[in-house]
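Notes continue from the previous slide.

Worked example: a multi-chain complex. Inputs as given:
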Amino acid sequence: MGTPRSYQTQAIIIKQTKLGEADKILTIYTPEFGKLKAVAKGTCRPGSKFGGNVEPLTHSLMMLARGRNLDIVTQSQTIDGFLTLKSDLWYMACGFYLLELVDSFTVENSENPLLFDLLLDTLHRLCRADSSEIVLRYFELHFLHYLGYRPQLHQCVICDSPLQPVVNFFSSSQGGILCPHCSEKEPESRPLSVDALKILRLWQDCDYATTKRVRVKAELSSQLKQVVQGYIKYLLQREIKSLAWLEELKGS
Amino acid sequence: MVISCEPLARLIEAFNKLPGIGPKSAQRLAYYLLHRPDEEAEVLAEAILALKEKIGLCSVCLNITDCDPCLICQDKERDHSKICVVERPSDIPPLERTGKYKGVYHVLHGAISPAQGIGSEELKAKELLSRLRDGSVTEIILATNPNLEGETTAMYLRRMILPLDIRITRLARGLPFGADLEYADDMTLGQALEDRREF
């Protein structure tokens, strides 16, 4: 027996691209197959059975049929439309940012169920209107971990010596912390205070419930955001487009 | 296939640049025109030239037009205190076909799409705000598409217009005619229930 012609999977819809007059190509993230592209036929027609069930930022249960090039979505039922998130401009922008990160860092057909769960949990957290700064940093650090880019925060990446409670440095190109001595070899590295390093370690090592309980001062939070997002930008070798929108909203 | 005849080759190349037209279709179109009467080719050529020469943006609503202001903005019979905000010029004809709207329009020429790096700066949102300054507008109808980008744009515009104390409305979201309740998504069905009417 060959592979079955159709299969069912949970999916978080990441992106839609138009295909011809009425169809759309969906980019979805699934627990079993990782990122997939599939065609949803007739989505643009009024009265389409898909409608809002295949909009980005939706958690759906999908039935897909194997196609020659792309698989075809035959059924889609919303499990959670994250309606609270979608009714707030800021949280929706955070959602766009998560989706862009997942889309940019993952390749098709590479399963990563932990990443799926992280994305789903993070969207639920945004719906509960938890502090978006902590939700996003927690997501970014665990996201990097699940993809194999976990930054080394416990010893100097160059000389392996344990870190002293002094101002250390974060190097994006080395993927972790440098002691003051080694940082001289890496002029691009950013200074990181003792408190900042403690918070980064907490976010990286603890579960979300613990992370949430620790309040972080706005100044420290913005410093950490720059460090983590600087690392992401270095890995991706380009800007994350939806960050510009988050910054614009913050400024207005 | 090598086309030795230069004008024909140029036309094929020009057709080939159009969306959805491959090299074979381009050749077919070019050969078709070659065998049609001269007048037909002239009409087509003139129409293409006129498109670029005569069409511009209306200085008021930014819709595409061949006269400035456009016919809708010129029309004294229309209610200029209501502005319906749409994403694209192509959104206006379907609204006009309903025959139920007698106000004027504003075309944003896009929607906020963070994933594509399109922010509010890329839209004609500033022009909308400057239209609202003289205080003659009493209602803004946000008719951006009912998808994530359209919703983001509507929420952003709402935030901008709110301090001006103008009534802001959004096109109702609900079940399209010919739809099936069983397949409706939560957001649409929820909205349809909330906005239900006396029957």
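Summary box: Chain B is about 40% helix and 15% strand. The first strand of chain B starts at residue 56 and ends at 57.
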